[in-house]
Amino acid sequence: MRALLSVYDKTGIVELARGLDDLEWELIASGNTSKVLAEAGVAHLEVAAVTGAPEMLGGRVKTLHPAVHGGILADRSVPGHMADLERQGITPIDLVVCNLYPFSSDPKVEMIDVGGPTMVRAAAKNHAHVGVVVDPAEYAAVLRELQADGHLSDATRRRLARAAFAHTAAYDAAIVAWLAGEQPAGEQTAGELPPRLELSLERAEVLRYGENPHQVGARYRAAGATSWWDDVVQHAGTALSYLNLFDADAAWRLVHDMSGGSLAVAIIKHANPCGAAVADDLAEAYRRALECDPVSAFGGVVALGGRCTAAVAKAVAEGPQADVVVAPGWDPEAIDILRARRKATRLLEAPTHSAAALEIRSLGGGYLVQQADRLVAGRPDWQVPTKATPTEAQWRDVELAWVVCARTSSNAIVVVHHGQALGVGAGQQSRVEAAEIAVRKAGAGARGAAAASDAFFPFRDGFDVLAAAGVAVVVQPGGSVRDEEVVAAADEHGVAMVLTGERHFRH
Q: Is 108 tagged catalytic?
């Protein structure tokens, strides 16, 4: 039996080679794999000894030879194939162990492997007769099966072949994505999405279930890459669910969007804010965030913009049950406090949130793709068309209201006063109803507050609801044919209005 070893990731390769050697397999190795085996004292043939041709072009050509690919691709059940091998003096290859250059971590032309994918695909194609291993994590199982049975089963070879094709597919997808990003100026219109998207995802985490118990769920990531979720540390609580992940991502993103020198806290329920506040003290920020809607906060996600100390943990423990609490750091005492008081609550330590460049949704067997929504414009870009202008304190509330509103399901209205969200009207078909919900939740706190609308007011009726509640300043994108009518209504009520020129629908 003959095995070809040619790996970039050398993890476990010496142990595998020794195991195969103990089983009296003949080993062939190329390039640096051969050097590693030689240093370890594992007997093997170099590829050049098999092909009769030296490596050339700085290693670009090593295994691209009939002596290698004939040995891999020969169908043992076809007499003509075996006769061809005999005429050419080629020995069949029964196992190919190969993994590819880590292109995603170091994208450049020299990291585009040619011989490796060719060997992997050849062995995977001929999996009826040849085993192919691309993941060092499989070495031990493969070796155990060979030791027990003397060969790999049909089921094992098929499973390994599937993993091999997924490996090369992910590799090619990474190259395509890199080349798309490297297009010369003028080849692609600014802001245009590529004509093709090559997606290869690997399962990163199996979840208890999906949105509902009857749905299977898992977290995936781009193959060969990582996301901020891969660096999350869970300090306590039960396993994370699909909705825990979905809501925690929304909460962590919102906290990062809530900028400024103050500490921020966001509370999310069903992917929508039900509390958000900034303060000079994180425990106080939590209490202020909770005041927005303490009933909805039960079973939600709490995102802390700063390290969770014992004082913060005590404040959270005194509040309603949270399914998840996520923070950039944790004091040991804080973990102990919440673990004792909230045994099921997941306590997550997370790195900085990083959103994907593209957002992808399924659509009846197809997909919708768009650039990720980012808050682009800021106060210097905004206009105030009204006679009244915001005070500096109101400007701060305007900015916070705008951020929270942008991360709330449309139609959305958010009321903020003194750095604290007081009313959130989310996901309403009518903007008037969204305004009515927001001011009802805000109550007397709406007087003198700032309100944000994620899209323009098509009529003045939604604005009139806010003005009647005593809101002092309203921020909205503008762009309606009735903007003049709405601005006139603001002047009529003595309310300041800010136009951002930037809509933030979220469905």
A: no
DSSP characters over 424-493: EE-S-SSHHHHHHHHHHHHGGGGTT-EEEESS--SSSHHHHHHHHTT--EEEE----TTHHHHHHHHHHH
The answer to whether residue 312 sits within a structural domain is: yes
pLDDT in tens, 297-317: 999 999 999 999 999 999 999
Segment 55-74, tens digit of pLDDT = 777 667 777 788 888 999 99
Residues 8 and 64 placed together within one structural domain of the fold:
yes
Q: What is the 3-state secondary structure (H, E, C) of 230-294?
A: HHCEEEECCCCCHHHHHHHHHHHHHHHHCCCCCEEEEEEECCEEEEEEEECCHHHHHHHHHHCCH
| Mean pLDDT of all residues in 80-91 | 89
Out of 125, 129, 314, 418, which one is annotated catalytic? 125
Domains identified in the chain, total number: 3
- For residue 199 the two structure tokens come to 């997606």
Residues 157 and 271 in one domain: no
Could you confirm whether 269 is annotated as catalytic? no
Q: What is the C-alpha R_g of the chain?
A: 30
Q: What contacts 253, CB < 8 A, 6 or more positions away?
A: 353, 355, 407
Give yes or no: residues 147 and 67 share one domain. Answer: yes
Gap between the Cα atoms of 244 and 262, Å rounded: 26
Determine which helix (DSSP H) or strand (DSSP E) holds 132, and give its type and residue range. Answer: strand 131-133
What per-residue confidence (pLDDT) applies to 261?
Answer: 54
Q: Which DSSP category does 84 fall into?
A: H
Query: CA 466, 273, 205 angle in degrees (round to 5)?
Result: 160
pTM for the whole structure:
0.77
The one catalytic residue in 129, 151, 270, 314 is: 270
The last residue of one of the domains, among 155, 177, 199, is 177
